[in-house]
Amino acid sequence: MTAEDSVDELIDALVRCTFQVTGVLTRIGADNDMSLTQLRVFGILRDRRLRVTDLAAYLGLDKSTMSGLIDRAERRGLLARAKNPSDGRVVEVFMTPLGHSLTQRLDGEVRAALTPDLARLHPTQRTQLLTLLQPLLPAE
Q1: pTM greater than 0.85 (yes/no)
Q2: How far apart are CA 115 and CA 47, in angstroms?
Q3: Torsion from C-alpha of 111, 117, 120, 125, nearest 10 degrees
Q4: Is residue 79 predicted with pLDDT exceeding 90?
Q5: Selection from 40, 24, 29, 36 nearest residue 118 by Cα
Q6: Which domains does the chain have, with CATH numbers?
Q7: pLDDT at 88
Q8: For 119-137, what is each residue's pLDDT tens digit?
Q9: Can you tell me the distance from the alpha carbon of 55 to that of 58, in angstroms, rounded to the nearest whole number?
Q10: What distance in Å separates the CA atoms of residue 66 and residue 110, rounded to the nearest whole number?
């Protein structure tokens, strides 16, 4: 097997795993009247406040699309906007307590759906997989 063949196999495996995880997220999102993009927004905002433009850039969306997603979540009481405490010119988006509650519940559902597959790995393999994936994760 050549190095190119092993890269091709790795890409194929990553894509298939991505399809599996995306399928779980899409199903759980649909069960809760949320799109995959909305789930991504909540995943990003779970521990921070961001400007709409920064959030849009992170997700690769234009500002108007991002504003529409935030507007819908605001109407549901899941997200809110407020001025940055140190710079009143900047408006940030953040999760409300209801949004945090929903995110915790959805996180539990995702973990429950994915754990059986991950449990098939030996604990050492899980540690190795995490170590190998770390360099591929985007910087936060």
Answers
A1: no
A2: 23
A3: -70
A4: yes
A5: 24
A6: 3-132 (1.10.10.10)
A7: 82
A8: 999 999 999 999 999 998 8
A9: 5
A10: 24
